[in-house]
Amino acid sequence: MSDTSLREHLRAATSEAHTTLDATAGGLGLSTRAGYGAFLSASAAGLAPLELALEQGGVGEWLPDWPRRARREAVAQDLKALDLDTPEMSPTPTPSFAFATGMLYVLEGSRLGARFLSRQVRAADPELPLAYLTHGENDDLWRSFVAWMEAIPKVGFRTDEAEAGARYAFQRFSEAFESAKSGVASGVANDQAGSHVRI
Fold it and tell me: Which of 110, 118, 123, 199 suits 141 as a labelling partner, its CA being 20 to 30 A distant?
């Protein structure tokens, strides 16, 4: 791996995928109950299989605070509050350490956008559940994740696999949001749900 930080590598490698996800998610109106429900359903469909794959790959062994980071129970809680079912999960291959690191980069980086979105949802309707978007908001989990990631020894680390893992995670979320977007009524306003926060 070069002297460029792993975070910079992954940010550059996923720039296009990040833009695609922003554009897709932007079709959901978070100011409405239906639009927010679709957002949560898409988030659950993208998130849960990735988290389970990480756990199958041993994430708890090399990221000890993983239990504090997992969010699939939080999004399921929000869906239940809206009387919505948790989407069925599609299988995800067990990742290598480097591939998993790329996946984690996407999952943990999404917390930055979640801060913006939680304020947007709260302003639109204070009664909407926010367990998912506010998960870990007082724990500075993104900063601690970046510190962990940048401490990974460079010797022998497959940066290309990490990039592939990050792109894969973005792809899974984009597919989930594309499916949710097609299910939202055409009258739902575009509230620009994509936060456009670069990680």
Answer: 123
Q: Quick one: CA dihedral 87, 140, 164, 9, positive or negative?
A: positive
Q: How far is residue 86's CA from residue 176's CA, in Å, rounded to a whole number?
A: 13
**pLDDT tens digits, residue range 154-191?**
899 999 999 999 999 999 999 999 888 776 644 444 44
How many other β-carbons are positioned within 10 Å of the β-carbon of residue 48? 23
Q: What is the CA radius of gyration of the chain?
A: 16
For each of the domains in the chain, give its residue range(s) and CATH number, in order of start. 6-183 (1.20.910.10)
The pair of structure tokens assigned to 46 is 């993208």
Under a CB-based contact definition with an 8 Å cutoff, are residues 53 and 93 in contact?
Answer: yes
